[in-house]
Predict the structure.
Amino acid sequence: MTELTVRKTEAAFTRPDVDLTTQLGSVTFPNPVFTASGCAAAGQELDQFFDVSQLGGIVTKSIMLAPRSGRATPRMAETPSGMLNSIGLQGPGIDAFLDKDLAWLAQRGARAVVSIAGGSVEDYAKLAAKLRGAKGLAMIEVNISCPNVEDRGQVFACDPGASAAVVQAVKRSAPTGVPVFAKLSPDVTDITEIAKACVDAGADGLSLINTLLGLVIDTDTMRPALGGITGGLSGPAIRPVAVRAVWQVRQALPDIPILGMGGIRTGLDALEFVLAGANAVSVGTTVFGDPRAPIRVLDELAVALAERGFSSVAEAVGLAHRPPEIRLPEGPDPVGDTLGDPAHDDEEQL
């Protein structure tokens, strides 16, 4: 399909009249569908299939201070209803990213959510400072699912104190007025404990969830299938885990903005996250099979909201937390057909 054909198909669809704007921290986004970090680089590859500026935002691949070659190959392995990746945060480094990728997003008119990652608290602070004055920057997503080289490789996101330290450092160094979201790992005993620590440290919101740690064995070589041994599990297989995490954090922190992600393929998947408490969603792994997935999910979400009588996406956020409705059984009263019979009433009066 040519780009022109794609654009015509795109233009033929008319979205229902639903207010799709959503608030994440101090920023209002035009709609609640974003890309997910690591699945679409900085959006240029997807722009040949649809106008990336139509999405709520483009979440970039996590960037580090210096260029990084990443892990050994093989780096990806298919799993039932998902995939494992072990890329190792390969990237050009923050300076090249600012000059090329972020500049392109700004020129394109897209709202950039820059994901940053580091091996120390100081790394995160320096990255946040580098973003001061950057054009097109709408939000910062702090990928704390990285090993802390100063603490025996302990992953920041698995420790409340370490998570809080990173968030505090980023908030101190980040551009004024730019929301800072902490991206949390599901590989913890109680994700609400980490969430509360990040919010207490100044996080403006939370991204839920990162990939789950997994491992695949190649039964022919009888060795791990990935060069890096373990990898991050993503795709539809993790969606129930992600929805659970969003639900738990929304219950624990009813007022904090949440960007939900994990296995979203359709508008109904996105609606599930919204009902659980997400203010917006990121679409990731499914783009490998369907590059137009983010814009398609946005269209399908708008239809799903309209069909259920919502006039805005905000009305649906967290709605699944409402108490269940009490419904009386239909048909004859369980105590007998005589209830309401005048003769029966007279007997009771006697």
Remarks:
- The chain has nine helices and 18 strands.
- The radius of gyration is 23 Å.
